[in-house]
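User: Could you walk me through two proteins back to back? I'd like the raw sequence and the structure tokens for each, with a short line separating them so I can tell where one ends and the next begins.

Assistant: Of course. Protein one, sequence then structure:
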Amino acid sequence: MHEQMPAGVVITDIVEETPSIRTFVFDREIAARPGQFVMVWVPGVDEVPMALSSPSSITVQKVGDATAALFAMHEGDRIGVRGPYGNGFPVSGRTLAVGGGVGASPLLPLVTAGQVDTFLLGARTASELLFAERIRDAATLMVATDDGTAGHHGFVTELMARVDLADFNHICVCGPEIMMTAVLAVLDREGCAERGLFSLHRYMKCGVGLCGSCCTDPHGLRVCRDGPVFSGDVLLDSEFGHYARDASGSRHRI
């Protein structure tokens, strides 16, 4: 697939994973490393970055114009996809995954590749737990829900006290940034921030490192090319967990 031009793909299946999250399966496989993303063009609406949940699918929560347009589509409709982009999760040895909400999506390829030993999965409520059964089939699964309807009653970060972080070579994390910031604080306190691998989401225009719209403070690292996965020690004392930028470049608080 040419990285500069979107390839037209046909949606072959739409899976309602939770009340707010759907997986869109398309008729082309993309050779990608776990954690890489693609730029998805929704004709007439926008082009946005989305993580691959498999070589031929994206898993999406309806949060804006592009995702709302996707949710209005049906099998047989066409979208554009270009990529893959980014570095993915460079894991080796034993891996702990921490996912919140739709953030479990870029972590799923790690699970299906047999690279996750323990997975801490969080959601607002039981019906919003994403990929729980698929994860349970391949890894040790621990669950937390904000309302206590499944697993631990509380935040997924609280489950970290139930595992020995020294047992893991890498801790792969994706979810709401406020959740990931809390995970990083735990790792930093335990002296192992460098073992954390965090998948960031930022506004992107090009996806190939040219436009600079996804550069992060203070180092100017580009989420599309230098990330989207960054080690925790790089994110300490950065904009991470504090603010991001919108399409105009203006800061908005996380």
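----
Protein two, same layout:
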Amino acid sequence: MRLIEAAGPWPFVTRKTLQHADGALHVLLSRAHRKDLLSGPAAVAADRAWWHSLWLPRQINWWIGVLFALGSVLFALGSALSLDAALAHAWAMSTTAVNAVYFAGSIPFTSAAALQLYQAASAAPFAGPATRRPGMLAWRPHDIGWLSSALQFAGTLLFNLSTYAAMALHSAWWMQDLAIWAPDLFGSILFLASGYLAFIETCHAHWAWRPRSLAWWVTFTNLLGCIAFMASALLAYVPQQAMSALPATLATVFTLLGALGFLVGALLSLPEALAASVTP
């Protein structure tokens, strides 16, 4: 096949147009390529009812979606317990126990991000050479899907540190900022960068409105979740002097919104796994 066109948001390539020897054109998309999803007539033929996506344990795409959904549910639960003292009291949940819910939610997030990075690193390079062997040690900074996955995985590790530290009682304001707020902030920055890269990968531009695309909705809702997590991290800073409880409350609200954004994106990604669950 001959390459006719390579396009995408600079400096990345997210869409290639190839021409077969018989003159037929084939469009290859980086997200579909990375996730081994069918496209074109084969994808239409593989279309099945959405409930078939509720159990696809042999599909790595399904596990990624399920684990992100589980982590999102736990983050949303932790936020709800933090916002509703009566609910936390009814469940006999102390502050430490609520923070443990957040930490428990960070584990599926990291597991899903690790699977996603492994998937991106194991796929054939879409743009630019792979300077290391396939697997978790691959290095593909020119590949937008790999870069997004790598940044998100690093962000989840920082969330592990932040949520683990939150289970200990830190009385000093500077310890709270150093052990909890700082990794949360930098993890949120990595998540935001990752979410934007994943979004523009489906846009094939730095911005596009594609409401008919399932992949676009998956990455768009995830990006909204990343923005909410970023707002939460900015509001969670603990100053030296005691202040109003409003910033901390708003930080929790944005954490809840971020978790809901990721939950919607994770659930929407499950039907996408159907396109990889059959042989064309």
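The chain has one domain: 50-276.

Let me know if you want the two compared in more detail.
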